[in-house]
Amino acid sequence: MSTASLHTPPGFQPASRVRGFGTTVFTEFTALALQNNAVNLGQGFPNFPAPDFVKEAAQQAIAADLNQYARAAGHPRLVRALAAAYGPLFGRALDPLSEIVVTVGATEAIFATMQALVEPGDEVILIEPFYDSYPASVIMAGGAPVYVPLRPQGDAVRAVDWALDMDELRAAISPRTRLLVINTPQNPVGKVFTRQELTEIAQLAQTHNLLVLSDEVYEWMVYQDPARPVEHVRMATLPGMWERTITLGSAGKTFSVTGWKIGWAIAPPPLAAAVFAAHQWIPFAVSTPMQEAVAVAMEQTTERDYFNWLSAMYQAKRDRLMHTLELVGLRPVSPDGSYFIIVHTDHLNPPAEPGYRRDFSVCRWFTREIGVAAIPPSAFYSAEHAYLTDSLARFCFCKTDEMLDDAAERLQRALG
Ligand code: PMP
Ligand code: GLN
After folding, report:
1. CB of 105 shorter than 6 A to ligand 1
2. In this structure, which of 92, 116, 377, 386 has its CB flanked by the most CB atoms within 10 Å?
3. Model pTM?
4. Which tens digits make up the pLDDT trace of 265-317?
5. Which of the listed residues 25, 29, 43, 107 should we mutate to test ligand 1's pocket, taking the one with most ligand atoms within 8 A of CB?
6. Which domains does the chain have, with CATH numbers?
């Protein structure tokens, strides 16, 4: 959205905390995809129908007149359903009323957490690549992001080859460090952090008395390879970590309803109370009928074997898009989790565009000339480390098979 207008008052400037913010890469590339009639494998949102049982629950909630403000910290039926679902996963009984806050998507939970826990001048460690709302939320809270990159190792033939250098992480911690953000399974590289890696991060957090925001919105999108079993480990379940961890989840990802914008933060009571203190002044409360629908859906996941169905469905889509990307020579990196695939573009020579990083030029070219939109991964890195992704692009596979096949045809026509 442009902030410049002919009709602004004299000398108008947006507040300094937002002045440097451009348009998000997702908005930019979805608009470019629409303009060019491209298959949008850029912004990560499912284009297939949400499950009927989830949609029916929403219709029934509205018909039943659950249409007024919800309890500010979360609709009682939803927080109870979340406590019941996550209790066994966290290995502890969760108190629905004091340990869960329902938010406007995980994105609001990120914003509220930063508002609640970061003092002006505090440093927050962000592991790159990161979901782009992390640095913006840190900055709006007056904090300072400190970036530690995952570095692609060698040819990066598997997601696990994105390595976090623990010495680099240790060196980034200062007396001002307050919080560390971890995202597993990870957007955009599809890395699922191992128990060993998370344990080392947890030890650093405890040694330096850091809080941890663990963004686990892709918790159900973890893929099994018989030769390489992958396990989603929850940071809050590691010894000594429950007390200092806020865990995030998202109904948008879990039930393929990104437009509903329902997310949650799970944390011990003092941290949850702080997140709630911010949340009550951001949206106050979240859409009641949508929370009721997510509650009903959560209650049915076990009897429907829903999470196994979801990961199997996505694993088949991952393999379908991997096959295409391999066929056209883009050397895709097979993700262990999430619904994104990183490819290599170093052999392509699209026209350079002045003012654009190489990966932006390549993704704009993919969108305009090939008719398949991708996202440039440098959008997930600080300026300092963006060079790491100059020859990479991100495609998402949370799309119908027809759409993935349409993309395959276009890519094969253009790249052979
Ligand atoms: N965290 C990560 C890592 C994400 O990729 C996204 C969305 N794509 C979110 C959080 C936001 O989730 P929501 O849509 O529930 O706000
Ligand atoms: N996180 C989603 C992605 O990576 C998009 C979220 C958004 O548009 N804000 O594609």
Report:
1. yes
2. 377
3. 0.96
4. 999 999 999 999 999 999 999 999 999 999 999 999 999 999 999 999 999 99
5. 107
6. 14-49+307-415 (3.90.1150.10), 52-303 (3.40.640.10)
